[in-house]
Amino acid sequence: MQHFFNDTSHVVADVLYAAGHLAPLRIAEPQSGVRILIRRDWDRDTRGQQQVAVLSGGGAGHEPAHAGFIGEGMLTGVISGSLFASPSMDAVLAAIREVCGSAGCLLVVKNYTGDRLNFGLAAEQARREGLKVAMIIVADDISLPDTPQPRGLAGTLLIHKIAGYHAQQQESLDDIQALAQHACERMASMGMALTPATLPGQARPDRSPELGLGIHNEPGARHIVPDSARDAISHVVTPLATTLEERGHIDGWIALLNNLGSCSTQEMGVLAASLIDHLGVARMTQLIGPAPLMTSLDMHGFSVTLMAADATMRKALQAPTDAPAWPGVRNVRQPDTFTPNLAARNGALQDNAPQATHIAAALTQVLSVLRDARDDLDGLDAQSGDGDAGSSLVEGADAIEQALTAGRLDTAHSERLFAGLGQCLATGMGGSSGVLLSILMTATATSLEQRGLVDSLWQGVERMQTYGGARLGDRTLLDALIPALQALQKDATLTEAAQAARQGAAHTATLSRARAGRAAYVPDSALEGVVDPGAEAVARVFETLARCL
């Protein structure tokens, strides 16, 4: 199973079944054999007397088009065919009969042969029945400049919105048709896909990335392999901009960025950023999307529509609608900026900081021991983690050494010493270990304003446990640190505290189950007989302090 389908022959029916349950729609009875969805609040004998009905549709597989754009201020209804196949003339005619009152009905049709013929024949038949019907054919694709019949793409949705708005204003059918035609002449679309669409139950076609690939897997303008999202946007937008400029429309464009099916949210965000950078806020003043608007099943690609919208068109596009899939229009502008207050980052370090020679010397020895232990600690960590515990500690040691050498770390006052250590570890030591040790040092520094050193270290440990979630016995550095602090709390010497830390570190080799850190995700057998690297580092630090102080 590669896609979440049930019976592949019932994909369209399942999609419309969900739409019928989730939106205020009326649907054609399934046994009728046609797929028509109409606004629940629409009645041709009441609304249809004052307001033009706007119908669209075509092949399925482009969801949320077309059913997602039914609503007040947009489409009155849609007619769906099978996947990538036009609905029948009978289905279109039945939809016209259902919605068309004396105000008339406008058909918005993408420029594909099947759609033109079936919608066109239905329009002619409806006229014979005395119904007032007009049709707009959308041909916004510019990827094949020499083709006599440009294809209809996502720009069709802009026509849905513009026609739907003017219908809501109870303008005449002739005026709405003219406004829609005017809008068609001021827009252009093009797409790019890395992979084509996959029809349910079929294998994905083996095709290279294409510029201008059609939404039914029709051939594109040429094969192309973009090297970045920025490059892809350039290949698509440059000819679009040229086309509008050749028509006399230089700037003030609205852009529609459409996900053709399987681009991730992140990809669409990067494409949107690239589109804004490429055009700039002077030329592209508003953006619709990025969003899946007219997709092509799971095609991995996007399309861009540029429209040189005048004031009337902008008003129509920006007007509210309750069509569920319409994302709205957003202004594109340079973001406001502010200067973040980062003073606290450097508050614990200062130039010409006071120094206590014996403390500075002991700290230098601790840093040297940690550097020498790098390979041992990495080796221990490789058996239960990603093998970088020693390397990470060296990063922290280097950051502390830099501040100490520069005379910016206060070693004469314990509160500022621990605050400085916390700052160095936060900025210089990567991974969660750096953050946890910074929490230990910072919380200890805060507590030193009111408590002694040992009690303050206990406060730091409690904060580590609160944020990190580890406890004694979970195979972490706490298994060495807590026994050492327990010894100091009983007025033990530093040597005795170091012995307690060493015993605690050794005990981690007997703990076959970790409950915190990366070691919690490896089999118990991988931990047997292995000392936790964090606990080992703490033991070596206390042993060094016992020798130096």
What can you tell me about this protein's structure?
InterPro entries: DhaK_dom, DhaL_dom, DhaL_dom_sf, Dihydroxyacetone_Kinase. Pfam families: Dak1, Dak2. It contains 19 helices and 13 strands. It is an alpha/beta fold and 549 residues long. The chain folds into two domains: 8-196 and 226-331, 3-Layer(aba) Sandwich (Rossmann fold); 349-548, Serine Threonine Protein Phosphatase 5, Tetratricopeptide repeat, CATH 1.25.40.340. The strands form two sheets. It has a seven-stranded mixed sheet, with helices on one face. Strands 1-2-4-3-5-6 form a six-stranded mixed sheet, with helices on both faces. Strand 10, helix 8 and strand 11 form a beta-alpha-beta unit. The longest helix is centred in the middle third of the chain and has 19 residues, at 265-283. The radius of gyration is 34 Å and the shape is elongated.
Topology:
Layout: H1 11-22, E1 25-27, E2 35-39, H2 47-50, E3 53-60, E4 77-83, H3 89-99, E5 105-110, H4 113-128, E6 133-138, H5 156-168, H6 173-184, E7 187-195, E8 210-211, E9 222-223, H7 229-246, E10 253-259, H8 265-283, E11 284-291, E12 300-307, H9 311-318, E13 330-331, H10 343-346, H11 357-372, H12 374-382, H13 389-405, H14 414-428, H15 431-447, H16 453-468, H17 478-489, H18 494-507, H19 533-548
Parallel strand pairs: 3-4, 3-5, 5-6, 10-11
Antiparallel strand pairs: 1-2, 2-4, 7-8, 7-12, 8-9, 10-12, 11-13
